[in-house]
# Entry
Amino acid sequence: MLVTNYTTKPVGKMTALLALFFLFLCPTVLNAQRPQRITSPDSARYSLRLHREDGGPSRVDESAGTISITRQRYDRILTIEQRRRRKGYWQFSGSMSVGFPYVDYYNRREYFRTEDASRSTSFILPSGEIIYGNNPEYLYDNDDFMSGFHAFPRFAAARQSKWGGYFHSTFGYYRSRVTPKGDPYSNISADRIRVARVTKEDVVTFELGFQYTFFRYRRVRPYVGMSLINYLYYYGESVDRFYDEASRSSGVIGGFRSKEIFPMYTELAFTAGAQVEVSNRVSVGAFLFFNEAWNIFLEAPVGLEVRYSLK
# Structure
């Protein structure tokens, strides 16, 4: 038998401390290098308890146990349940839209006064005297002489459904005026006769319409829609009025006037806009509006609207 003798050297204090430090350090370093698994909030799970409602206070259903569900699925079910419990509601609204007439609509011309009746335009003064003018000069820089005003207030009762449909019946009154501003005789020489086209329209309307509201449960709610618009009353006037500087007299040389009650002209109108909720019941917004103008052109494309909800 071969026996080998060996001697074990005693371990110093410093060596023992280093050994202990290494034993504690290695697991820490290894764990730090190991990738950590981070749970996404969407993949987190909830443990839910069912509650029973029998017409009285809600109470936990002990026989049902618990349900484990992801957060994403829980949010989806909650959204569906909230939509199911939402209901439609009535609304009342008031709006005002206005128009911006173009300078080209202001038709103006000036005649040279003459004593020659041949190939001249005759003007009958309020006194009965007849004067003549020829060589008309057409002018289109009329924004300093003519002014236009177009307004279309409307009032509606509507039903907002929970799925986004908005059904409304609306009464409106369209008012349009194009007239000279200031003194119509200003800047006219004594040998000229000024002629300007003066227009007036008063229209009472009734609409039955539909709109679809996007993001109806958010603060900002855009929408698009169309309506069937009917005219209940119409008065229109478009006349060529002359202004004679020499006599400081005015009269009419041509034009038309029309007045109709229940003409029942039917047209389509289109709108698009957005409402912003300012409280639980009140919202305000802006919109664009235009109609087909087969019979009457409602020149009021830009407007503001206030809605009040009966929730």
